[in-house]
Amino acid sequence: MQTHKPPNRNSDLFASLKYDFPAGIAVFLISIPLSLGIALASGAPLFSGLIAGIIGGIIIAPLSGSALGISGPSAGIAVIVLSAIETLGFKGFLLSLLVAGIIQIIMGLTRAGVIAYYFPSSVINGMLSGIGIILFLKQIPHAVGYDLDYEGDTSFFQADSYSSFSELSHMLEYSSPTAIVIALISLAILILWEQPIMRHYRFFQLFQGVLTAIVVAVLINQGLQSFYPELALTGNHLVMVPVLQNSGDLLSQLHFPDFSQFNNPTIYLTALTLAVVASLKTLISLEAVDKMDPIKRVTSANRELIVQGIGNAFSGLLGGIPLAQVVVRSSINVQSGAKTKAAGVIYGLLLFFAVILIPTLLNKIPLASLASVLLVVGYKLIRPESFRVMYKAGLYHFIPFCMTILGMVFTDLLIGLTIGLITALFSILLENYKTAFYFNESHIGNKTILRLSEHVSFLNKANIQQTFEQLPDYSDVVIDATRSKYIDYDVYEIIENFKVEAQRKHIKLTIENLRGYGVLSPVENARAPTYDIQKALPPAKVLELLKEGNERFVNNLKSNRNLLEQINDTRQGQFPIAIILSCMDSRTSVELIFDQGLGDVFSVRVAGNVINDDILGSMEYACKIAGSKLVVVLGHSHCGAIKGACAHVELDHLSGLLHKIKPAVDAVNAEQSLAVTADNEDEVQKVSDKNVQLTVEQIRSKSTLLDGMVKSGEIDIVGAMYSIETGKVKFYGFDDKTILRENYSPALN
Fold first, then answer.
1. Are 566 and 527 a contacting pair, CB within 8 Å?
2. Which residues contact 385 (CB under 8 A, 6 or more apart)?
3. Which of 304, 384, 586, 729 is the most buried (most CB within 10 A)?
């Protein structure tokens, strides 16, 4: 027997390392200035940003369910942290961060992560493009050597009193030719590494573009320091990692919470604020990163909240600043080709060992080179194609998308996201108002069909009310609530009130499956008839059921059926309630016309709905053996066979069939003393009616079995005419003397 070996997870891990390791290096290099800059903006010790970055890699990455997400300090929380440190002191702030982590864990355990599924795609896409634009704008000054604004700043109005735009002109006064050259060389390397042809060479696969660009930048600047020191970049133009001389210095960088403030209410208010903001940033970033994932993995939002809570609790215990999953670092990870979360762990380990062992080497990295990397990342995040896609999606998606971008660029990340979400909410309300339910207006007569959706909330109230007010007098209205699983009481009340209004306006109102309000029980499935049901049905009741089915058909309604369920119901036997003889015309499927399902009726179809011995035998079987209670002869308007008989068509075997209709043609000729012509639609219709009448007579005259069953009341035989124009079926029957009953009309209205 052949056996299948389970997949070797270790081999998969090692196979992905060739992608994850370079990606981890790229994230590590970019994270150093970002972590330091955000710590500076937060008013915390610089080493706190590095602690948070290390925790994001070593603790959060292996526990997270996100394969490509990278966690670290977030610029969007810096303002909250700065205020908290000023109010509580740094150690008091660490206690609130510890509590915030616990709150996040509780949020994850209580499944609060479900909120992630309610972020509109337009806002997520807008956030990605917005961050891309911000990155691009913010890195241009660093690329030309103006480094007064800290790395990681995302606010429109900066600490140096300039905005993202005004700084672009102000920076020219302080530009550095060396920084510009290094930035351009780094950009050239990054662009060169992006070319498809380069991926065929092993050298370019082993040495990642980001690492190569930074190494070249360091070598250029070190060469200048050796030979042309006046041109070299120094000071705040380089990365500035705190240098640890010994283990004592490392311990001095660690800070611990002030548990003496345990009873301070401000601690918990700050903790709640931090937990909510960090969680929202994480959940939004989580959705964005999943969108960027080439293989579209889906991350558990609840698990991510728990893991982020663990990370923030550790950060609070060890003297770090708040963490969240961040788009910038995650996008670098994705763009660098990472495959698994091993890249995040590698980033954390590299950050830990590099800060301890080689801080002086890290401090040789020019910010201009890192700016080039972030310029490329920003461009890729902007994704011009996304503007076209969102525009094609419609204004209800395009406007929130644009408002998210504008809000983020001209304020900051959190305010911009809030603006985007509020705009999306209004767009959803407006879109819901415009398309509150399925609405179809038939082109036949004056019929309007309102098909309610699965969830009909108060948001639909205005649209439904307006639709009712616009309905003209004497119209025909159908309200179908079959699909509805929830109907708000306000909507239910409007429909109930409309019943009274409809009578006043002489509106013919049909309401299908309106089962109350609130959460509604499902509509029961129509099941195939059983032996007991079939036996208990009198012929008149069967006729009534067919009329009701045709009424549903005319109103574009149908019974709720599960065809697989009906297959199972009838696999042991069938108990149809009627046998229907109809024309073979493609427009006269009796199961559709009478809204019947599997096992409900026998269907016999032949051109001109004529009979022969085989058809009579089938009818006798259906009624005497299978228990059917009604025989229906169904003609239809504009019947091709009837026209052929009226035109005396002769064509091989067809001639014999049309001769069976000739008695009806002769009868109409005799009644009107004028020969019927196939071009006269009224005369052809009279022949159709007469053909149905004569077929019913022939069934009873040729089958003594069926005639006897009619006389005993076991079955009935009726004629009917289907209008292909309106979908309506008009029934008529015959007494023993073959005289039309009073409800028969020879002309179809």
1. yes
2. none
3. 304
Model pLDDT, residue 544: 95
Strand pairing category for 518-519 and 455-456: unpaired
State the pLDDT at residue 626.
95
**pLDDT higher than 50, residue 4:** no
List Cβ neighbours of 191 (8 Å cut-off, separation of 6 or more).
376
Cβ burial of 309 (10 Å; 0-12, 13-18, 19+) is buried
**CB proximity list for 740: less than 8 A, separation 6 or greater:** 693, 732, 734, 746
Under 8 Å between Cβ of 71 and 278: no
| pTM value > 0.85 | no
Q: How far is CA 297 from the centre of its chain?
A: 16
Closest CA to 373 of 529, 556, 143, 573: 143
Query: Which amino acid would we find at residue 266?
Result: T
Tokens 């499902």 label which residue?
522
Cβ–Cβ under 8 Å, residues 37 and 150? yes
Q: Is the dihedral of CA 620, 624, 625, 630 positive or negative?
A: positive
pLDDT of residue 13: 57
Q: Hey, which bits of 590-709 come out as E strands? A: 601-605, 630-636
Dihedral pair phi/psi, residue 102, rounded to 5°:
-65, -40
Helix (H) or strand (E) holding 203: helix 202-206
Cα–Cα distance between 724 and 585 in angstroms, integer? 10
| Strands of 601-605's sheet in order across | 601-605, 578-582, 630-636, 716-722, 729-733
Q: Please measure the distance between the N-terminal and C-terminal CA atoms of the chain and give it in whole angstroms.
A: 73
Question: Pairing mode, if any, of strands 455-456 and 486-487?
Answer: parallel
Q: At what angle do helices 177-194 and 121-144 cross, to 10 degrees?
A: 140
Cα separation, 644 vs 650, whole angstroms: 9
Structure tokens given for 603: 């269907």
Cβ atoms of 479 and 510 within 8 Å: the answer is yes
- Per the listing, tokens 């440190």 go with 85
Q: Which residues pair with 441 in a beta bridge?
A: 448
93's tokens: 């702030």
Q: Show Cβ contacts of residue 10 under 8 Å, excluding neighbours closer than 6 positions.
A: none
Share of the chain above pLDDT 70, in %: 93
- Give me the pLDDT at residue 747, please: 34
Q: Report how far residue 146's alpha carbon sits from residue 57's, in angstroms, rounded to the nearest whole number.
A: 30
Gap between the Cα atoms of 81 and 38, Å rounded = 10
With tokens 């611990």, the residue in question is 256
Which run of H or E residues covers position 106?
helix 90-109
